Amino acid sequence: ILNVEQSPQSLHVQEGDSTNFTCSFPSSNFYALHWYRWETAKSPEALFVMTLNGDEKKKGRISATLNTKEGYSYLYIKGSQPEDSATYLCASLGHAGRFGAGTRLTVKP
Amino acid sequence: KAGVTQTPRYLIKTRGQQVTLSCSPISGHRSVSWYQQTPGQGLQFLFEYFSETQRNKGNFPGRFSGRQFSNSRSEMNVSTLELGDSALYLCASSLDQGMNTEAFFGQGTRLTVV
After folding, report:
1. A42-87, pLDDT tens digit by residue?
2. Rounded to whole angstroms, how far apart are CA atoms B88 and B38?
3. In 3D, which of B91, B56, B14 has the Cα closest to residue A95?
């Protein structure tokens, strides 16, 4: 993998559903993996900064895992709420700040 | 603590003109990075400055340039504007240059080239 890739591109879930999405990144020359949440008309907001293989981070209902050897990270949202609707971006900041295109999450009440 | 401030928020320019965008980082932050977002694209990295020095540069033509001042404020300049330069330009500041430091984004400057 040469670039940071995120899947799926978009996701529609019902309130209360749990969901997860994937970020794939080049595993060579890895430094750190960042997750951001970007709501419409707002600035991207940092969720997690992850550096170690096997890292797991949690903030409320949102958690993330990191596998630097195979070059992927998962973001999980437990019990999605409408206010979780946003675009979730991941970035591998080893060289020149490579961002994925994001996963657009819509949570329906 | 004030957040990252970008000015102006909106800008309309004509093809061929040049434009300067400004970013004031969070007080105490020494690293500033610039990104471009165009419709359907993810954030594309432009450059990063730390202590007034450009540390990294993305894959953009030489028409895109930047600088950082001693107070860490940063400016980016785009010369000879093209229609394709229409985009949201975001800057992010972080405490240090380290890759494991959290970045804080401004609200962006929406540039429209007509």
Report:
1. 999 999 999 999 999 999 999 999 999 999 999 999 999 999 999 9
2. 6
3. B56
Copy the structure tokens of residue B63: 């028409």
B interface test, pick of A7, A90, A93, A104 with most B CB neighbours within 10 Å: A93
Q: What is the DSSP letter of B87?
A: E
In this complex, the residue of B43, B100, B104 whose CB is nearest that of residue A32 is B100
For chain B, how big is the Rg over CA atoms in Å?
13
Dist. CA B92–CA B63, nearest whole Å: 21
The residue length of chain B stands at 114
Distance CA B50, CA B63 (A): 21
Residues from chain B that touch A52, judged by Cβ atoms under 8 A, are none
